[in-house]
C-alpha cells in the first residue's frame, strides 16, 4: 500500500509528452519568423532605391571621315546601337539597323556633286539619340547626262566645272 501513496516530487522521468514538444517548436518558428520580418522591414526602410539608382545619360558618339569621294560615318557607344538614320541635305532619309552593336561604320556613302551636308541620327537600345551633321565637298568630276531634244536625241554632258 505504500506504493500507491508514494508521490514523486520534481520532474517525471521518461519522454516528454508530444504536446509540450509541439508547443516548443511552434514558439521557435514564430520567433524566427518575427526576426526575418524585422530584418526585411529594416532593409526596406534603410535602402532608399532612388539613392542607389545609377542613370546612364550617355548618347552615341558620331564621327565623320572622308575616303576619296565616299563619306565614312563611325558611331560608337557603350550600349548597343539600335538604328542609324542619315540623309544628304534635305533628301530622303535612309535607315540602317545597328543590330545592338557597340560600334557601327557606314563606309559606302557616295558624296553627291558639289557641297552637301550629311545629317546623321543614331539611336541606342535605351532610345537615347544623338544627331550630328558634316559638310562634304565632291572632289572629282561629276557628269550629269540629260536629253535636251527627244526628236534629235541630243545629249549634253556637264561636270562640276560646267564644260560641255
Commentary on this structure:
The chain has 164 residues and is of the alpha+beta class. It has 2 domains: 16-48; 61-144, Immunoglobulins (Immunoglobulin-like). Helix content is 23%, strand content 45%. It has 3 helices and 7 strands. The strands form 2 sheets. Strands 1, 2, 3, 4 and 5 form a 5-stranded antiparallel beta sheet that branches. It starts with a helix and ends in a 6-residue tail after the last strand. The model has no long low-confidence stretch (mean pLDDT 81).
Fold blueprint:
Elements: H1 2-5, H2 18-46, H3 49-52, E1 61-67, E2 70-88, E3 94-110, E4 115-124, E5 129-137, E6 144-149, E7 154-158
Antiparallel strand pairs: 1-2, 2-3, 2-4, 4-5, 6-7
Amino acid at each position: 500500500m505504500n506504493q500507491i501513496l508514494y508521490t514523486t516530487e520534481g520532474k517525471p522521468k521518461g519522454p516528454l509528452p508530444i504536446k509540450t514538444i509541439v508547443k516548443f517548436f511552434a514558439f521557435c518558428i514564430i520567433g524566427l519568423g518575427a526576426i526575418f520580418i524585422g530584418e526585411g522591414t529594416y532593409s526596406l526602410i534603410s535602402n532608399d532605391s532612388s539613392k542607389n539608382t545609377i542613370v546612364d545619360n550617355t548618347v552615341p558618339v558620331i564621327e565623320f571621315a572622308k575616303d576619296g569621294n565616299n563619306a565614312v560615318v563611325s558611331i560608337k557607344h557603350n550600349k548597343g546601337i539600335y538604328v542609324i538614320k542619315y540623309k544628304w541635305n534635305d533628301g530622303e532619309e535612309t535607315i540602317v539597323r545597328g543590330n545592338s552593336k557597340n560600334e557601327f561604320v557606314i563606309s559606302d556613302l557616295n558624296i553627291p556633286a558639289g557641297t552637301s551636308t550629311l545629317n546623321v541620327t543614331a539611336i541606342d537600345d535605351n532610345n537615347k539619340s544623338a544627331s550630328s551633321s558634316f559638310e562634304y565637298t565632291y572632289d572629282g568630276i561629276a557628269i550629269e547626262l540629260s536629253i535636251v531634244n527627244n526628236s534629235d536625241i541630243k545629249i549634253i554632258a556637264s561636270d562640276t566645272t560646267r564644260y560641255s
